[in-house]
Structure formats: C-alpha cells, structure tokens
Prior knowledge:
7 helices; single chain; 54% helix; mainly alpha; 140 residues
Amino acid sequence: MTRAGPEPVWLSAVRRGSFGAIPHPLAYRQSSHLAHLIDARQVCDALSWPEPRSLALERKAAGGGTWNGSALQLWCVLHYQHRRYRPDRLGELSSRELQEREALCAALRAKLQGVSPGERQLILTFIDAAQHPITAPRWG
C-alpha cells in the first residue's frame, strides 16, 4: 500500500485515540497515512456494511451532496478514496474531485472531534486490527 511521504508526527497520537491531533484543516493530499490506519474492507465486512465503494456513494447521497455518516463510516470512505486514487495519480483528480475529497477530510475530522466513547473504542479496535492483521495458518 502506497503512502505519500514520511509518516506525520501527529499520527501516533491518533493511533492512541487523540483525534484532536489531526491538523486543521486536514488536506486530502496529506491524509494518506491517516486513511490507511484502518482497512475499510475489513471494517465493512465486520460490521456488515456495504462494500467500500457502495458505502462511499451511500454516504455522499445521504448528505444530499455533502459527506454524511459516522466517523468510522467517513474514515472507511477516505480509505476507499485513497485506494482508488494513489498518490502517484493525484494529478488526475479534477478540481471538483479534489474539492469533494477535501470536504470529506473536513467532515471526518469534525466527526472525530465529537466521537462518542463507544465509537472511539470501535475505531481503535479497527486501527489495531489493521496494524496487526491476523493471518490464517498455512496447512501442508
């Protein structure tokens, strides 16, 4: 998985649940490391949510053109967007697409500032799971 540049210093605080450490504003081009703290497919599978692409479309439609959803849903959408558009392809985004992703980053950051203790714990569980994946034993 490709991430743009070195890991930002604030990311270790986010891993511990200190979401106030996320810079304001959070630019889409600087959000790759944050996006990849979770694995959207793993989250969607575990919570029986639609697959990440459908979740992205659903969260955009639910907001009437703006991003809407829980912090974890928006984080999954951000992960999906970064998987779709790798840093080496960012130049291909139209100004409208980049503006939409900037709005997604702003919505996610805002949701994380007021996240409930229960959702915070759920997010931290998925951050840990993405950093320490469980692999099936190999037989034979």
